[in-house]
Amino acid sequence: MGTLLTQYGLYVESAEKVSHRRGIANNFFLLVNSAASVALAAFGLSSDEAVVWPLLFSTIIMISVCVLWGFTVHSYRQLSSAKWRIVNALEERLPAAPWAAEWQLLGRGKSRRGYRRLTAVEKWVPGLFALVYAVGFLALAFLG
């Protein structure tokens, strides 16, 4: 039992580290996109028509960054899900199963009114930034 408890503790710590790294990655992408949004908005305020091509190039780059961010969120979600399934499997062999009990109390993340998984929200953020870049470019290029 001692070895199993040690393995369980190490694996829970490993799963929590993945969640921490995911948060760091999201903060990085959020910072890059926030800075780029400000820079592109300031750049796009110019009335010079020569700005359109560099603005288009920058917009394409930032939409690509958003796609990369979306893939990163998806990858971390898959890794996290696998790790927590293993934690739950280990808990089946222990006298108590606190993570499984917590997840059960939260409706296993399926309740619309209760707990909402972070990934249910975070998966939309890269797409929203990409949409803002596309609409912003079109507005500045054709209406500005």
Protein model, in words:
By secondary structure, the chain is mainly α. The protein has one domain (2-142). Helices cover 79% and strands 0% of the residues. It has five helices and no strands. The chain has helices spanning 2-44, 52-91, 98-105, 118-122, 125-142. It is elongated and about 70 Å long. It starts with a helix and ends with a helix. The model has no long low-confidence stretch (mean pLDDT 86).
Which helices and strands occur, and which strands form pairs?
Elements: H1 2-44, H2 52-91, H3 98-105, H4 118-122, H5 125-142
Helix pairs in contact: 1-2, 1-5, 2-5
Arithmetic mean pLDDT: 86
- β content, as a range? under 5%
Unreliable runs, pLDDT <50, ≥5 residues? none
Order of helices and strands: HHHHH
The tally of strands reads 0
What fraction, in percent, of the residue positions are helical? Answer: over 70%
Structural class: mainly alpha
Q: In DSSP terms, counting alpha (H) and pi (I) runs of 4 or more, how many helices?
A: 5
Shape: elongated
| Euclidean distance between termini CA atoms | 69 Å
Could you give a short account of the major beta sheet? none
Radius of gyration: 21 Å
Number of domains: 1
